[in-house]
Amino acid sequence: MSKVLMKGNEAIAEAAIRAGCLNYFAYPITPQSEVAEYLAWRMQEVNGVFLQGESEVAVSYMIFGAAGAGVRVFTTSSSPGISLMSEAISYLCGAQLPAVFVNIMRGGPGLGGILPSQGDYLQATKGIGHGDCRLFVMAPEGVQEAAEMVMRAFPLAEKYRNPVMILGDGLIGQMMEPVEFPDHLKSVPSNKNTWATNGMDHRKSKTRNLVRSLFLDSQILNNNNLILRDKYERMKKEDVCFEAYNTEGDYRILIVAYGTMSRVCKTAIATLKEQGIDVGLIRPQTLFPYPEAAVREAARKESCRHVLCIEMSMGQMVEDVERSVLGARPVKWYGKCGGDVPTPEEIIELVKSTLALHKSY
């Protein structure tokens, strides 16, 4: 299969079509508007549906309706837009409906700026909506992985009957890289969604389906939340993904970073290796479920002295890193936000100063 040079947003759009999703509802917001621009003409070619809603709130309930009817559906947005969708996302979780959301993050809080950020980590992994709801969250490091994660997202959403989010940043949406769409990741929507409101004749059933997230009886609501909890625990057991980089041998520093920030860290690690300083990296590919065991094992390696969490935020993933390490090693955070990206030179200096502080360098 030949590779094509594509902008990240366009690759995300094409990946959804290759994954068998022909329903896209969205509202434009920088830095992801190219997804809608691409699909405005591409959906016509594949007899799909593209509808621009009057707001992100409207879009999110269009998603609810389509998902409830049992069809594959997705949307893309950026940070403030996802915030407006959070109520409907909670409804989707409560009603156990599969859908895919792509968040190409920008700086915040508030309107913030349009440059790249990782400031929505806590929102995506812990605070996306009211109630005891969680998303399955994946974080790509580049255009190729973004396309592949989008293609994987639809079967995962259907496996768990739960919304899935791809959490990228403005760099991933705007950069151009060679990309291909692997045939083995192509899939077709299930026509056996026995829970969907797609008509009794279609299902050859005499039973009406009701898709809802309203449970006025406290015991019934509690039972529904127990079902959701068990589902989230199953995610942790079956679908945690991460990359271990330069961890085969001994290293004195372990870096934990995700998304495009991890690529900057890999550049720094290569330079440090040339200088005789070995640094390992754990890159979470799923942010929920989080690779706690992988981070813990890497941090507790005998040669490791310190753990660095490096982010394009004011320190959001660091809480999960600390929870994973459980005090076995000191954890230090470093990051920037607003669109500034920590450079390889800054990371190199951070590693050296950390080692010097602990009299190991």
Short characterization:
This protein is an alpha/beta fold and 361 residues long. It has two domains: 4-238, 3-Layer(aba) Sandwich (Rossmann fold), CATH 3.40.50; 242-357, 3-Layer(aba) Sandwich (Rossmann fold).
Note down, in words, how this protein is organized:
Helix content is 42%, strand content 18%. With 361 residues, the protein is of the alpha/beta class. It has 2 domains: 4-238, Thiamin diphosphate (ThDP)-binding fold, Pyr/PP domains (Rossmann fold, 3-Layer(aba) Sandwich); 242-357, 3-Layer(aba) Sandwich (Rossmann fold), CATH 3.40.50. The strands form 4 sheets. A 5-stranded mixed beta sheet has the order 4-5-7-6-12, sandwiched between helices. Strands 9-11-10-13-14 form a 5-stranded mixed beta sheet, with helices on both faces. Strand 6, helix 6 and strand 7 (163-169) form a beta-alpha-beta unit. 47% of the residues are buried.
Question: What is the element layout, followed by pairings?
Answer:
Layout: E1 4-7, H1 8-18, E2 23-26, H2 33-45, E3 49-52, H3 56-68, E4 74-77, H4 79-95, E5 99-105, H5 121-125, E6 136-138, H6 143-160, E7 163-169, H7 170-174, E8 176-179, H8 200-203, H9 218-238, E9 242-245, E10 253-256, H10 259-274, E11 279-284, E12 286-288, H11 292-299, E13 306-311, H12 318-325, E14 331-335, H13 344-357
Parallel strand pairs: 2-3, 4-5, 5-7, 6-7, 10-11, 10-13, 13-14
Antiparallel strand pairs: 1-8, 6-12, 9-11
Helix pairs in contact: 1-2, 1-6, 3-4, 10-13, 11-12
